[in-house]
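Input sequence (489 aa), recorded before submission:
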Amino acid sequence: MSEFQDLKNMGFIFHQENNLGEAEKYYLEALKLENNAEVNNLLGIINLQKGNLDLAVDWIKKAINIEKNAYFFETLFQVYIKKADFQKIVEMENYVEELFPKEFFLIFNIALANKNLNNIKDGIYYYKKAVEINPDSYDAWFNLSHLYGIEGETYKAVEALEICRKLKPNDKDTEYFYSIALLRIKDYDNGLKYFESRMCKDIAIASQNKTYPNKATYNNLWKGEDISKKTIFVYYEAGFGDVIMFARYFPLLKKRCRKIILKIQEPLANLFIENPQLGIDEIIYNFIPEIDIDFDVHIPMLSLPFVLGLKGNDVFIGHEGYLNIDKKKKNEYKEKYFNTDKLKIGIKWQGNTYYDVDRVIPTESFFPLIDVPNTQFYSFQTFEGAEEVKKLTEKYNVIDIGKDLTDFSMTSATLSNLDLVICNDTSLAHLAGALNIPCWILLPYEVNWRWHTDLSICDWYDSVKLFRQKSIGNWKSIFDEVLKILQNI
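Predicted structure, token format:
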């Protein structure tokens, strides 16, 4: 055996033992004897393991210059992924695809890079090539389904997820995303059934444990049986908008039970108290000891349409509006803010960015709308994002109502004085829809499941009109469309 091979082998032994320092020393000694592609690549791997990513790139490129080996390109791609430098991978995609058209991991990582750069159509192209090479790759099918969903090719997303379900039977995460795809195409009969898989997700388990862990257990979860003489405990599990949206089902639930106890976020409490027609008997919005709560069965709020057995369009009950307004509060706000003959328009641009930053609208995007003659704009932005209000008030006579709003009862009273609401996909939109107030929701390119595929209508609220970005991050296209309509009102 040659001295070069001995040094390389010793380096490899130390490398396997994770003694990177000794491995690197032997590899460097070996290179003095022979400029070997594999050893250069191994030095790249060592620097990847050490976190010296730029050095790793240099070593692996040396290996590739010596030999066009698919494994070396795979290693290089792993470094670029670690660096989050996806553009470098995309720049090499045609070259690598020509060299190695059947190398699954290379094609998969090219797809991954395009996905991370929001090159959705190219990502779909390469994930499709990946599943042609390896039809049993769950990750490739799953990512392909996600990109189909973004592009609005929802039936293809469903088909891809059906393959994922075959590759990973009974996997709850897969079933959850399958349910979202089904809901997006308005297959609520099947979608709501699989949507129950969310109950196995960590966030749902935490929600139940946080609520009342000794009483709200799986054993007394309501599954649709007769509860005409029983008390049901319903609790929130998502954001304000979801609670408002699913409040439409309480009147139906009330017909099935003796008493409803609702655990709700405090900012929503007064709004629900002011709407007795919903049929809620008791509202809890702060901590009460478990011993003081008496209920027979429980259910998380988002399970209501499924357990109530709603089918088809019955899911959209209440689309004409189902919440009432406190008229006294409405008149109080009218005197304070709304004594004008101008078109009164409320706006909001940001919700909870913990869930989704794509829905945040740049405040400056509203400038052309505010310039429309005979309009009076009102900012309903509260909490996160409220610091942006000054961009409007310094330039225009925009009234900042958001700073005075402390709960949704106050918000509903002020909204009821408006002619129109224009906002991002946020709780304000659901409140406007539930109150049957005209509302234009400005959606990002990747649309939430509840707005479905056909955006010409809003199934949930008759008073809502939907607008969608023409491309990822392109709010201008929406505002150009909105401006034309607003000018014609």
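Checked by second reader. The mean pLDDT is 93.
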